[in-house]
Amino acid sequence: MSSNIRIKKVCQHCGIEFVAKTTVTQFCGDNCAKRAYKARKRKEKINAVPSKDIQSVDFRISNFSDKEFLSIKETCELLGASRMTVHRQIKKGFIPAVKLGSRVIIKRSEINKLFEQ
Fold this sequence. Notes:
This protein is α+β, with helices and mostly antiparallel strands. It has five helices and five strands; from the N terminus they run ββααβααββα. The strands form two sheets. A three-stranded antiparallel β-sheet has the order 3-5-4. Strand 1 and strand 2 form a beta hairpin. Helix 3 crosses helix 4. The longest helix is centred in the middle third of the chain and has 19 residues, at 30-48. The termini are far apart.
C-alpha cells in the first residue's frame, strides 16, 4: 500500500529542497544518502584514532617500562618533572643516582621505591 503523504523537506547532505513521501526521509535521493554515509564513516574513522600527543606519550612510557636504568631526560619524562627538579632531588638524596663519566644514571627500582613509601 503506498502513502499519499507529501512533505517538503531540505536534504541533510546537499541542502536542496525536495518532496518526501515519508516522515523520516532525510536525503533527496540515493546519491546524497550514499555520500552522507561515506562522510559519516570517514568521521568515525578519524575520531577512532587517538591524537598524536597521546600516541607519543604511550610510546615513550612503553619504552621506559622495560629499561632497568634511566637517564635524566627519561626520568623527567617518566615523572613529568623538569630537569632541574630531578637534579635537585638527586642532590638532596631523594633519588639515588650514579655518575658514569658525564652521564647520570638512575635505577628504575629506586624511582619505583619513591612511590611505595
